[in-house]
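Hi V.,

You were right to ask for the full record rather than a summary. Here it is.
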Amino acid sequence: MVENKNYKTIKIVILMTIMLLLIVLTFKLLFRNQDIVQICNILRSVNVWYIGGAVAAITLYVFLGGYAIKIPIDFMGYNMPYRSCFKYSLIEIYFSAITPSNTGGQPMIAVAMKSDKYRFADIAMVLMAVTAIYKIGLMLLALLFLFCSFSYIFQIIGHIRFLLYLGIFINAVFVGILLLLMFSNQTFWIVENILFKFLVKLSVIKNIEGFRAKILDQKIKYGQCADFFKANPMIICKMFLVLILQRISLLVITYFVYKSFRLSGTGLFQILAIQVVLSLSVEMMPLPGAVGISESVFIFLYDAVFGEFLVYPALLLTRGINFYLPFVVSTIYILYRFIKKIILNKGNNNVRIL
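Predicted structure:
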C-alpha cells in the first residue's frame, strides 16, 4: 500500500516535469523570431481595467467549478463550505493540467472529498452529473456561438477545420455514451454488444469478464445518476446554469484582452465563437494542459483578429490568465497541502500529495 502511494506521488512529479518541459519548449519555439522587448512594451500599454475584468472572470470560473459541486452535495444533506468551492476547483485545475486530455482532475477531487468525509457513492454521483452537464453545456454553447457567427468562423478556420470536426465528434460521442448510460438500457446494451465484439476482434480487450464487470458497474452508477436527474430537476437546472456561466466566464477572457488593446471591429459573439472552436479543437488532445497545441491554434485563429503585431502579446495575456494563472495558483495550493501534510505527519513515510 505504501509503495502504491509513493508510486502515485512519483508519477505526479514526473507529469509535472513533463508539463514544465512542454511549456518551456512551446514558448521557446513560438517566440524564437519575436522581439521580446517590443512585446513587453505592448503589454505595458494595455488597459488594466479590462485585464482586471479578465482576472475577475477567471476567479469566477474557479469558484463556479466548485459551486456546481456544492449545489447537489448540499441538497443531499451536507453543508459544504464556500471555501471548498475554490479548494476542489483548484485541485481539478492542477491535476487536469498535468494529465493528458484533462483526465486527472475529477478522480483527485473524489480523493479530496473522500478525505473530507463525504460518502463515496454521493461523490461519484455528483461528479458524474457535473461531467455530463458540463459536456452537454459545451456542445450547446458551441452550437449557439457557431450558429451566430457561422460564416465568419469558416472564413478564418482554414486547416484547423479538421481539429474542430474531430473535437465535435469526440465530444458528441462522449455525450451520447453518457446519455445512453443514464437513460437507455436497451439501446445501451445493443451498442455495448457491438463495440464489445469489435474490440474483442481487434484484441484490444484481454480480460473479457473483467471488462464486462466494469461496464456493468458503470451502468449501475450512471443509472443511479439518471434517477437523481429525474427526481431533482430543479437541482439539475441550477447546476446547468452555473456550469454554463462558468464556461462563458472562461470564454470571455479573450474578449477582455481584445478590448484591453483598445481594438474594435470584432464582436463579442465572434470572439466567443472562436474560443469555442479553440476549446473543441484542443480540449481532448493527449497533451498535459493541451500545452503547445493551444498556443499554436490561438496564433492561427486570432491572427486576423489581433493582427500580426498584437497576436503574440494577446496570446501571452489570454493564455496567461485563462490557463497559466490558475495553474500557478493551483500548484501553490497543492504544494501548500503537501508541505502541511509533511509537517503534520513528521516521521511518517506514507505522505501523499493529497
